Amino acid sequence: MRAGLSSIRIKSHDHGFALRIGELKRARIGLVGTGWWATTTHLPALQAHPDAEIIAICDLDADKARKTAHVFGIDSIYGEFETMLKRESLDGVMVATHHAAHYPVAKACLERGRHVFIEKPMTLCAKQARDLVDLAASKQRQIVMGYNSNHSPLAIRARDVVRSGELGAVQYINGLFSQHIRPLLAGEDVVHHARLHGPGDVYGDPIRSGGGHGHLQITHLAGMAFFITGLRVARVHSLMANHGLKVELAIAILAELDGGALANFGGCSNLPGGGRSFGLTITCEQGWIEFDDSQGRLIIRREGEEPERTDDRAFADSHQDLDFAPTHNFVDVILGRAENHSDGVIGWRAVELLDAAYRSAGQGGAGVSRDELYAEQTS
């Protein structure tokens, strides 16, 4: 405990009593969805955090839930998340279901006054994302998104520089995220680093996942771009190619952002030789930034100065630290110890981009404005 803090008292919003800092306080967490990423990353990350307590898990698949509970030593298992919310005293809930179920589960948790962690994408449409952000604000609760790279010291440095205004206004963003996850998008239940359960066929199902490369990969790129710049999409043109799959394998997005900046986001889930390419170039009025997340490298260029170069190869190579970061941040945000590095607004901005992109691709690349995402449809 830090010296000088033992006499400070804060109010606990969940329980309505004063809590003395210095007393043992653990975040009581429930988990909805016990699939591949939950059992490979989220539950191990919770167990690795000294102040997190896994209270209960929930899954419609009773056998999967029982196996998960046995492996991780969890006593309480539920088949319906509403029942878990009614019976358990929870500070926060992690939502790791298939994409289409994110909204109803997260909404129910927020309505009951729980902080919520939502795996990406936040929702499948912008209206739902806006609804969750507004609900969280009304309940004074936090939404933490599962964007791991936003926790990189390089991403945080890039954000601080861009948002300080020292480089001037953002004029152009180029983002690329390609990685070999074609087997996932083909619906194959094959992942080499699965700890307990594989992904099944969910990522190849457009109903449950909403799409392919966009919702699995470009969402990370968008989450980072909006984290660094604070900008918001105004209009989108997009093309997608399935290459024989039920969901898109490759995607190209051209976007106009508020303030007049343009952005290019794209990538492909087929890299037969392996590897990963994930990075952003952000051009501003008086300088530009090259952020290569794959290589752990950040270069900031200012007119008339030597480039500022930062390498963090160790962080880039430490997949566990990077993957655990959002879950640990969720616990620390609940306990009031940390800044939320991937809040609901960032998740919402990413959904706006993707919602518009899928609509545009469905119209042969026609432009879709942000306002259209919220327009009431009339018959």
What is the N-to-C order of secondary-structure elements (H for helix, E for strand)?
EEEHEHEHEHEHEHEHHHEEEEEEEHHHEH
Describe the global form.
globular
Number of DSSP strands? 17
The share of residues in extended strands comes to 15-25%
Helix content: 25-40%
If you compute it from the alpha carbons, what radius of gyration comes out, rounded to the nearest whole angstrom?
21 Å
| Oligomeric state of the chains in view | single chain
Look at the structure and give the CATH class of the largest domain. Answer: Alpha Beta
**Which structural class matches the secondary elements?**
alpha/beta
Question: N- to C-terminal separation?
Answer: 61 Å
The CATH H-level superfamily of the largest domain is: Dihydrodipicolinate Reductase, domain 2
Q: Numbering strands along the chain, what is their spatial order in the largest sheet?
A: 16-15-14-13-9-12-11-10-17
CATH topology of the largest domain: Dihydrodipicolinate Reductase, domain 2
Mean pLDDT metric: 90
Number of domains: 2
CATH architecture of the largest domain: 2-Layer Sandwich
Low-confidence stretches: 1-24
The description of the largest β-sheet is:
9 strands, mixed
Number of contiguous helices: 13
